[in-house]
Amino acid sequence: MRRRSRGITKIATTLLLAGIAFLFAFPLFYLIATSLKTKADLFAPVPSLFPPAPTIDPYISVLFTRGFGGLLVNSIIVGVSATILSILLAFAICYPITRLPASPRLRAFVLNWALSLRFLPPVAVVIPYFAIVRAIGLYNQLPALILVYTIFNLPLAIWMLRGFLDEIPLEIEEAALVDGASRWYAFWTILLPLSRTGILAVAIIVFAFDWAEFLFAFILTATPQAMTFPVGVQGLVTQFEIIWNDMAAGGVIAILIPLSLMIIARRHVLTGLTFGVIREK
Amino acid sequence: MKLRKWLAIIIPIALVASACSSTSTSSGGTATKLTIAAVQGVEDAGLKALAPMYKAQKGVTIEIVEAPYDDLYSKLVNAFKANDATYDLIMMDDPWMPKFGTDGSLSDLGPLGIATDPDVAQVVWDVGTWPPPRGPVPPSETSKPKQLLGVTIVGNVEMFMYRSDLTPTAPASYDDVLANAKAQNKPGELAGYIIRGKATNPVVADFLPILWSQGGDVFDENWNVVLDNDASKAAISFLVNDLKGVAQTDPGNTDASDRDKIMANGQGLQSSVWPGEINTAVLDPAVTKVAGKVTFIPIPAGKSGKGVGMMGNWLLGVPKASKNQQAAADFIKWMLQKDTQMTYAQNNGIPSRTSVLKDASLTTANPYFPVLADALQAPPNWRPRTDQWNAVETIIGTHLNKALTGGETADQAATGAAAEIRTLMKGAGYPTK
Amino acid sequence: MTAAPVQPFAIAARIRTAWIARSRQEQLVYKLLLPVFGSVFVIATIPFILATIQAVTSDSGEFIGFDNFARALSNPLLYESLKQTGLYAAIALPVEILGGLGIALLVHRTVRSNVARAAIYIAAMIPIVIPQIAVGVVFRLVYAADSGILNVLLGQTGPNQPLWLSSPPLAMIATASVDIWQWTPFVYLVMFAGFQTVPSESVEAAQVDGATNWTQFRHIELPYLRPLLLLVLFFRIADVIRVFDHVYVLTGGGPGTTTQFLSLYIYRIGFKFSDLGQASALAVVVMVAMILFYRIVSRFLPADRA
Question: What is the pLDDT of residues B219-259, one digit of tens each?
């Protein structure tokens, strides 16, 4: 009896999961399908599920004809730099409050302040940031984006890193200190290697969020020298033209890079996503 | 201190690396590069074709930075507010110019060498002049001298298109339009009239000619709001009740590209149309199914008796903050020359010279050019010249969209929009009642 | 104790004694923390200050007090926007959180093969990394009437098809569905990892005792997951209130003002109306409200390990 009901449950859950998987995969599939359509396909009175005559012209158009390759490079530069900076700053803030005897009130203050940053709608601060960036002469320069992205990702980075650092017992460092090592030596040779997983996880998540950011990139840049890829792709949505195939190609390209990164480092990312509170076995 | 050392190394490297990828802006001397902020889409196609020509002739590189319609407006507003020198030339939709003129962000082109030319319709010079030579002038601007702040680069006047194979006689008024629509409308197969109803700018662009043709308006000569008088209310009702009854399935979500698609697929009878969008679909041999069956005419007259078209020229202006004033103005002058305009027209540009528009060699590829020339001479109406236009358009557009999607009645849309506009204009210092 | 004829001396002396009294370690904390945290704090707070300044001055720079605030708060469209944002959150959040939790539970219980788990994991990553504009346009292509694929697949074509983007109730559902599509996988990933670390002994013990699936979940696993669940919930609330990108592309705030959520409303005031004074006033109000909301909420958050 048990076996039969188990069998039915198994089928039912498999179907349920398959159904959910299908629902989630469908928009992605349609994005790819659209990216392979020709202009004539887009004009068909009834849209088709599969591209009737698949072509990679949209990809060529996006990367070369429209010159978005340069924007892609900008996105990579900004993403990598902002991620490095985020981690450095997050470390500089997390270390004192996790590895040193900071008062609980201070610790709570820092963490709560970091989380409260996330409650801020970017639209509300975009104009003040524009004014600041203009004032310090960084308008239409990549460093402006790097700085702004770093600040906006700091809450996430701090919370995630804190979780990882909390996992590592204080005793390990204490032992080294008692043996006469300087604090920095202990940090460099003991703590850092142990937190490698956490750092990598934070890095990938932060990079993924930086990669897709649009609003600040749009407001703080004016020419392709500093524009990022999402800004370029957004420009393909116009009032008078139907170039969804190019736009879809842009979307697919934009997915591929962070996705490959995530696949390569999947174990670390999973741990990172649980803010280090929980560690995967 | 290892952490600090790392910081000290990595951050400067990152900053330097990113700074190296940015080119330096030229300072002083003769300009070798001009940066133009342009609208992404069909309107700057001709401009893109002109850029290499200019470089070949004068040795000046033209860098075109594109942004979609709404985004371009925000970009320009921000750039002007910050007195930014990034752009040497800007493309602006003519309704934006009043704001830039009021804010004093643009240079007077007269002293820079641009003179009016009779081969270009007078309305083109008028629309680029601030304060406007006719119609109500914003109170803060009445004492300013008239300056030429923009020159037309895309000679857009909104027109009308219809399937001449189905209705051989051109509609002479909107009553004809409605009658034809009712006669031919087959829900699901052929829309009697394609409404461009997407919120804010799209629906207002489609609606204003209807409003004026019925004798209504947004403001009167003294900036009083008349959007809720009888004629205006009738026009709104005409749009959201009569025309909607014979429209396509989802007017509230239809933008220009959607209506072109419907028309090109033979699923629509008639609609308003901008010259710039005609070649993207309806006359594009690769996608059109109605080749040779569509005729273009000026906007039909209404109860007022006058066929009141609406102009939507894209102007080229020079920001006061640009460091290459004369070079920018020279480009504009070059762009206005007849030979340049001919090449421009051959590359999907919409010229403004009458002689070019009536040139026989261009008419085959662009059958609407002669119609456009006549429309420019009419002259067509323009949108109210106020720095608050973007806000006004947003208000009207939201209410019209709401009415089109069943959220309120035509009357409510009229009174609601009128009330909001009154509050807005009074807050901005206009003597609105 | 020094007899202090001048007050500042006494205070300074007291601070100094207190500082020396701290252990060297604690001093280190402040020495390390203050520069970095301090500068970040300042940088992050400057926009708030700027926004406040902008909110109380007119365009020409004179101080006009609370005029902008009065205008901002007396605009009925603001309250409609807040209402719509609340509705949006009420639809999207439960589905995301419960859905993510439910799917995680399902996979945790029934999917055994590591290959399958890895595959699901990678698939769940995609909605997180996709650019918002692509999300918006794809869903427009799915939901649009007449040119969208959904109605075609449902067999609903012709004049009476559901207008997903133009009918107010449907538009709200359509926009919420995009949010759900994008973020349920995120909740799933977090919760799934959480399930992995519930100690297996407790689970086995419960099963030996004959606990049903539901009891097992409720009494063994849920307590372990609670802190994580709360954390995810608050991050998602923060994000849903800030939503902008995909809504802007999908409906532009329409039909009418149905999907004009808070961020879109501020965008409209600041960018379309160019009313920076009012937009800044709104920004300040939002920020203050958020801080207050957060103070209340932070009591429940695991800011510190128990």
Answer: 998 899 999 999 999 999 999 999 998 888 888 888 888 89
The strand order across the sheet containing B314-317 reads B61-67, B33-39, B89-93, B314-317, B151-154
In 3-state terms, chain C is what percent helix, strand and coil (to 5)?
A: 75, 0, 25
139-168 of A, contacting B, C-beta below 8 A:
139-143, 146
| B229 Cβ neighbours under 8 A, 6+ residues apart | B216
The span from the CA of C124 to the CA of C119, in Å, is 9
Rounded Cα distance between B432 and C3, Å, is 71
Fold of B31-154+312-377: D-Maltodextrin-Binding Protein; domain 2 (3.40.190)
Please answer yes or no on whether B40 and A84 come within 8 Å at the CB atom.
Answer: no
Q: What is the Cα gyration radius of chain A?
A: 24
- Do C80 and C139 fall into the same domain? yes
Domain count for chain C: 2
C159 membership: H or E segment, kind and range: none
CB-based contact C188:C181 (threshold 8 Å): no
Determine whether the interchain pair A254/C134 forms a contact, defined as Cβ–Cβ distance below 8 Å: yes
CA pair distance B391, B199, nearest whole angstrom: 13
Q: Is the pLDDT of residue C178 over 90?
A: yes
| Residue pair C268/C253 in contact by the 8 Å Cβ criterion | yes
What Å distances lie between residue B348 and B160, B177, B261, C94, C115, CA to CA? 19, 29, 19, 51, 55
Q: What is the pLDDT of residues B82-97, one digit of tens each?
A: 788 889 999 999 899 9
Q: What ranges do the domains of chain B cover? A: 31-154+312-377, 159-310+385-427
Find where tokens 């650019």 sit: C131
Same domain, C263 and C134: yes
Q: Are strands B270-273 and B151-154 parallel, antiparallel or unpaired?
A: unpaired
Domain A58-273 part of CATH 1.10.3720.10:
yes
pTM for the complete prediction? Answer: 0.84
Domain that holds residue C30: 7-56
Beta strand pairing call for B89-93 and B314-317: antiparallel
Chain A, 172-231: which have a CB under 8 Å from a chain C CB? 183, 208, 211-212, 214-215, 229-230
CATH of B159-310+385-427, picked from 3.40.640.10, 3.40.190.10, 1.10.760.10, 3.20.10.10, is 3.40.190.10
Q: Do residue C176 and residue C124 come from a single domain? A: yes
Same domain, C168 and C285: yes
Interfacial C residues in 55-84 facing A (CB < 8 Å): none
Chain A residues within 8 A of B78 when measuring between CB atoms: 130, 219
Same domain, C230 and C158: yes
